[in-house]
Amino acid sequence: MKHLYKFMVIALLGILLAACSTESPGSSSEDTESGDSGEGNGDISIGMSISTLNNPFFVSLRDGAESAAEEAGYDITTVDAQDDAAKQVNDIEDLLQQDIDVLLVNPTDSAAVVSAIESANSEGVPVVTVDRTADGGDVVTHIASDNVAGGEMAAEFIVEEVGEEADVVELEGIPGASATRERGKGFHNIVDEKEGLEIVASQAANFNRSEGLTVMENIIQGTDSIDVVFAHNDEMALGAVEALEAQSMLDSVTVVGFDAIEDARTAVSEGRMDATVAQQPDLIGEEAISAVTSIMNDEELEEFIPVELQLVTE
Amino acid sequence: MKKFIMSNLSRLGPLLGLILIMIVLGFASDNFFTLDNILNLLRQVSINALIAFGMTFVILTGGIDLSVGSMLAFGSALTAGVLASGMDPILGVLIGLMAGLAMGAFNGVVITKGKVAPFIATLATMTIFRGATLVYTEGRPITGLSDSFTFEMIGKGYVFGVPFPAILMIGVFFVLFFILHKTVFGRKVYAIGGNEEASVLSGIKADRVKIGVYALTGMLSVLAGIILTSRLNSAQPTAGTMYELDAIAAVVLGGTSLAGGRGRIVGTLIGALIIGVLDNGLNLMNVSSFYQQIVKGGVILLAVLLDRRSK
Question: What SS3 state is found at B157?
């Protein structure tokens, strides 16, 4: 009798262990269903998970996507993760419950979003990342601003403003960050080709306004002549403006920033800054919807779809 | 007779509320009453429910714990750190849970021996534990955890198709139900919340019970954090921010009095389900996230007002 008990307990444990898995139970059957969803254009439904709608950038991105979806006749459901990685995973699972055809994700965190993308993969739902990338999972394409082109745009503006003979200061972002690398690369693509444009100083101020100020102060002390300042973001550019103003050098120096934040736009319109490069979040949203159309038509997509930037000069 | 109906109505209030909300959502969205979604819902609820279970004990003693979200973050970062360094996942989980126990006990000691009001004490430790998390993680998410099957099971696993976090939640619920309603410890918790002075006079070591209750909450918060870490395959330094509010809301929705001494853990389970059902259902109905917060707050307010009336 005792042996029978033991046997039953062991057998039960065995069955329980065998039943353990990290695969979602519905995952294999789902694939066949999703095949027929691409037929009618009218009932294509899109799920979009945004990192936070507490930031005007992402609100414009959502608005761009929603109006483009409406135009194309797609249903779109938007959820807001409020910058909480855990809420984003829940949100995406809720979206997957509604049998969406495509998932658009703007990750709160590149690592934490992976498990949610994997659930979408196992349900056979194609995934497109927007503005921020994901560290894993199968992603059809990534849509974001073309920072390299933005850097080139800034450099071309400088050439136009001051000509091909000038001493240039470059304020770099956080070393190694993708924005630093890409914006710097685009800038150097143009500047390095012009022999007259000399980079007299190139230092990191970590995207930070107060560091932009102190780094610029030091550069002013250590450099004879400065004609142009290019900063990898507006915060640093505005810090540099303060430093230049204190030395009454602002009028003779051209300052170009990046991001077109509110303060920078004001500074540009007041003439304290000369230009800033603006991302176009609404256009990113629109591109996301045209990517959906391509996916539904089984068209091949590039791994990365760059979205144009815009120069703000007044 | 009228009294009998009224008292039972107030006991059943949260459950009726839950059923009502579910029926409404069921009509509003075709995808609500699918088995997949119900299982999905249970997994989402488990995190808040585990924290809220601990919070129930704390609130029953007349206290409050605002530091649960920060303890969750620290425990999850610690566990992730141990895992990322290549140690055994079970060891990592145990270290995390022990840290939760220690943090919670620290709360309890400050409150009882330091005679600090629970609201202030845990407000301070909320900031301290969050700061400690940021120091430990250097403000960055911890990734690159091991591919251990055991650890993945905790947050992402299924047993017979039922999400493991849901099973964990129900298992913990039964253990805590037993502790609260069938043990001396549970009776002491109610006694302290009802009238602390009287309970001390009758020989209950109130301080010990309270420290135990806060320690339990710390451990349950970290358990929730470990589930989160497994689901996200990373530990976020900002994880659990504002989770104390959802946990307190679940307890209050479940009919537990913030004054202490009165309430049940079943109510908390239902309260957590109500919050989870609202989050899930409003998402399914494509309600804008801005309105979602108004609806959620409105439901909590309504529940508390109805609760006041029935007394």
Answer: coil
| pLDDT tens figures, B50-97 | 999 999 999 999 999 999 999 999 999 999 999 998 888 999 999 999
Q: Which amino acid is at A264?
A: A
| Record: contact B157-A91, CB cut-off 8 A | no
Contacts of A84 in chain B (CB under 8 A): 238-239, 241
Non-local CB neighbours of B12 within 8 Å, separated by 6+ positions: none
B112: DSSP letter: H
Give all domains of chain A, ordered by start, each with its CATH number. Answer: 45-145+281-307 (3.40.50.2300), 147-278 (3.40.50.2300)
pLDDT in tens, B176-217: 999 999 999 999 999 999 988 899 888 889 999 999 999 999
Nearest-Cα residue of chain B relative to residue A17: B159
B294/A contact by beta carbon, under 8 A: no
For the cut 60, the answer to whether the pLDDT of residue B1 exceeds it is no
The Cα of B130 is separated from the nearest Cα of chain A by a number of Å equal to 15
- Residues in Cβ contact with A67 at an 8 Å cutoff, skipping those fewer than 6 apart: A286
| Confidence band, pLDDT 50/70/90 cuts, at residue A275 | very high
Q: Tens digits of per-residue pLDDT, A20-48? A: 777 666 554 444 344 444 444 558 999 99
Task: Tell me the percentage of chain B whose pLDDT exceeds 70.
Answer: 95
Please check whether residue A301 is in contact with residue A285, taking contact to mean a CB–CB distance below 8 angstroms.
Answer: no
Reduced to 3 states, what is the DSSP secondary structure of residue B10?
helix
Calculated CA dihedral for residues B6, B7, B12, B17, nearest 10 degrees: 50
Nearest CA in chain B to A117: B232
Which residues, numbered 155 to 174 in chain B, qualify as contacts with chain A under a Cβ-Cβ cut-off of 8 Å? Answer: 156-161, 164
Q: What is the dihedral of CA B58, B63, B64, B68, to 10 degrees?
A: -40
Q: Which residue from B minimizes the CA distance to A20? A: B159
B127 interface with A at CB cutoff 8 Å:
no
In whole angstroms, give the CA distance from residue A165 to residue B205. Answer: 83
Closest partner residue to B284 (CB to CB) among A22, A97, A109 is A97
Per DSSP, A314 falls in state -
What gap in Å lies between CA B78 and CA B222, rounded to an integer? 10
What is the ipTM metric for this complex? 0.73
pLDDT (tens digit per residue) in A189-200? 999 998 889 999
Listed by number, the residues of chain A in 111-140 with a beta carbon closer than 8 Å to a beta carbon of chain B are 111-112, 114-115, 135
First-residue to last-residue Cα distance in chain B:
16
Verify whether the Cβ–Cβ distance A111 to B234 is below 8 Å.
yes
Q: What is the mean pLDDT of residues B140-150?
A: 82
Chain B interface, mutation test: which of A109, A132, A133, A135, most B Cβ atoms within 10 Å? Answer: A109
Residue A296 to chain B, least CA–CA distance (Å): 22
Q: Which residues of B9-31 are buried (b: 16+ CB within 10 A; e: fewer)?
A: eeeebbbebbeebbeebeeebeb
Nearest CB among A80, A83, A93 relative to B40 is that of A93
